[in-house]
Design brief:
By secondary structure, the protein is α/β, with parallel strands linked by helices. It contains 7 helices and 12 strands. Strand 9, helix 6 and strand 10 form a beta-alpha-beta unit. It starts with a strand and ends in a 5-residue tail after the last helix. The structure holds adenosine-5'-triphosphate and magnesium ion (MG).
Length: 245
Amino acid sequence: MVHLLEIVDLSVSIGNKQVLKNFNLKIGQGETHALFGPNGTGKTTLLNVIAGIPRYTVEEGRIVFKGKDITHMSMDERARLGIGMAFQRPPAIRGLRLKDLIKIINPKADAQEILKKMDFSAFAERDVNRGFSGGEVKRSEMVQLLAQQPDFVMLDEPDSGVDLENIKLIGEAINTLTQKDLRPSARTKSGIIITHFGHILEYMKADRAHVMLGGSIVCSGNPAEILSQIKKSGYEGCAACLCPA
Ligand SMILES: Nc1ncnc2c1ncn2[C@@H]1O[C@H](COP(=O)(O)OP(=O)(O)OP(=O)(O)O)[C@@H](O)[C@H]1O
Ligand SMILES: [Mg+2]
């Protein structure tokens, strides 16, 4: 198994709070992993640190992507290497129209086709995320990822606040981004998705899931099984189960 992403003994703090503690994770080429965990446990922190947002202090450990140590690489270098992210709460960008951002992300992208796929054509002329509803912001993030076509896609709660019809559209877009239309051995792209309720997993394919508690992974396994375990015995119960992390 070739690992696209490897996180080794990563400890990260922000302000005077240590958020990630000896965090370890490997994601193989062609795999999509789901990440569950209670509020404030460090899920967004993990994705932000992989993306290279500079406000965090990496105290220990390393992040290896495509065999390269990217722990101290700038955010734009990581994006160029093939890392993309849909943010939990992205900012609005005054003065930048969505259709122009698509061209900046990828001049070769077929903006009209992408907007149509996400049922988002009516938003092409609007400033990015400005005045968008919660669910519209999530579709805007997907539009940008479909333009970028990253090799590793990170999705921070892409389903939160999204209605029942659009959750299907978002699930399908994630399957496209992670090449679930190809046979498993032909897939080269990978992803990680943070979701609380897992409803989106009915519309997209996740290969493996992890439960994060107190800044590290405490349990890993099949997504449906992990989700039902959390529903049955809570996150703490999941930590006590025998699944190897
Ligand atoms: N600047 C900061 N100073 C101190 N603590 C911070 C700062 N920024 C974030 N934190 C804390 O880091 C912890 C991890 O936050 P994070 O956003 O990663 O959680 P999360 O698992 O994504 O939660 P949620 O499910 O609510 O999105 C939280 O307790 C948060 O309050
Ligand atoms: Mg979060």
